[in-house]
Design brief:
Protein name: Quinate 5-dehydrogenase
Radius of gyration: 18 Å
Shape: globular
Structural class: alpha/beta
Number of domains: 2
Order of helices and strands: EEEHEEEHEHHEHEHHHEHEHEEEHHE
Number of strands: 15
Strand content: 15-25%
Helix content: 25-40%
CATH class of the largest domain: Alpha Beta
Strand order of the largest sheet: 9-8-10-11-12-15
CATH architecture of the largest domain: 3-Layer(aba) Sandwich
Largest sheet: 6 strands, mixed
Distance between the termini: 39 Å
Number of helices: 12
């Protein structure tokens, strides 16, 4: 039996282990949170190295993408380089392929239309989703400046996003990752009601990393569609209680929760039996088609 483990800087309260089968191969899939403790994450990675089939890095990105360029996050790269034997991934391969295809599938289904208003809370973290949303003709706000940097300026064009990324990301990627993304106990802290709520109220569809969405979530989101991943049963119940209309997860639901792109990319890497740097987008797309991955849609209200 293959074993794929996601080592996350996130809260251990979201930990889960389950068994699943893909293309006749049995897997143990596990998430292990380190509650924002970077050194503990390094230690766990070194303990698992060479003892599991693939490792996913959760709660942190290794790379951010914009305008066809890749920007390495210093803290994420250090974690990746701590793994010497076992293939390790950060989920960016699926963000480029699976999430892009999910948006296109939702457009074919009529869930996303040119009349849709979409808030993508962070685009450089989900570049495939960002580019695919722009393709649909929907009105999109990329919330990178608003939610990551606290600058209340909505970005409305991919070209603007790419321009700003080229200026800011070489600086931002050198900052401690905790400044940009909630880790550990910070994942349980909610932003108080603020003027940024208006972007949530404006949107028909709220998309992106779930912990980012959750951190800024208003008390009511009646009629909204949430497009995300890594949701637990408790998350689903909360969204329902807040009035959300629909939840769409880009990764499959296994034993009551959707796992992160990093751990699912670890599964695909194991099936492909290749090194991460050798895998092409075409490899992932072929395998995703073989696996029959489709967006998981839950009607909430």
């Amino acid at each position: 039996m293959k074993r794929v483990v996601s080592v996350s800087l996130g809260s251990s309260k979201r930990d889960k282990a389950t068994e699943a089968e893909f293309l006749g191969e049995k897997f143990i899939i596990e998430r292990r949170g380190t509650d924002g403790d970077y050194n503990k994450a390094l230690q766990v990675l070194k303990e698992l190295d060479g003892k599991v089939d693939a490792i996913g890095l959760g709660g942190i990105d290794v790379y951010l993408y914009a305008g066809g360029r890749r920007y390495a996050i210093k803290d994420g790269l250090r974690l990746l380089q701590a793994v010497k034997i076992t293939p390790a991934v950060d989920g960016s391969g699926l963000k480029n392929t699976l999430e892009r295809e999910v948006v296109r599938e939702l457009a074919r289904m009529g869930i996303i239309t040119p009349k849709s208003k979409v808030l993508l809370v962070s685009a450089v973290d989900r570049f495939g989703m960002a580019e695919a949303l722009a393709e649909t003709g929907a009105e999109v706000i990329f919330g990178d400046l608003i939610f990551a940097l606290g600058i209340p300026i909505p970005i409305k064009k991919i070209s603007t996003l790419n321009f700003l990324a080229a200026i800011l990301l070489p600086i931002i990627t050198k900052l401690p990752f905790q400044i940009l993304y909630p880790t550990g106990k910070e994942q349980e802290v909610r932003e108080k009601k603020s003027k940024n709520d208006r972007y949530y109220h404006w949107a028909d569809i709220i998309a992106g990393d779930y912990l980012y969405i959750k951190k800024h979530l208003p008390e009511r989101i009646d009629g909204k569609i949430i497009l995300t991943n890594t949701t637990t049963r408790e998350d689903v119940e909360e969204l329902k209680a807040k009035g959300a209309k629909m939840l769409v997860t880009t990764t499959p639901v296994l034993n009551g929760r959707s796992f992160g792109t990093n751990v699912m990319e670890g599964v695909l890497l194991t099936l492909l039996n290749k090194k991460w740097e050798e895998v092409t987008p075409e490899d992932y797309l072929r395998l995703l088609k073989e696996l029959g991955f489709k967006p998981n849609i839950i009607e909430l209200n």
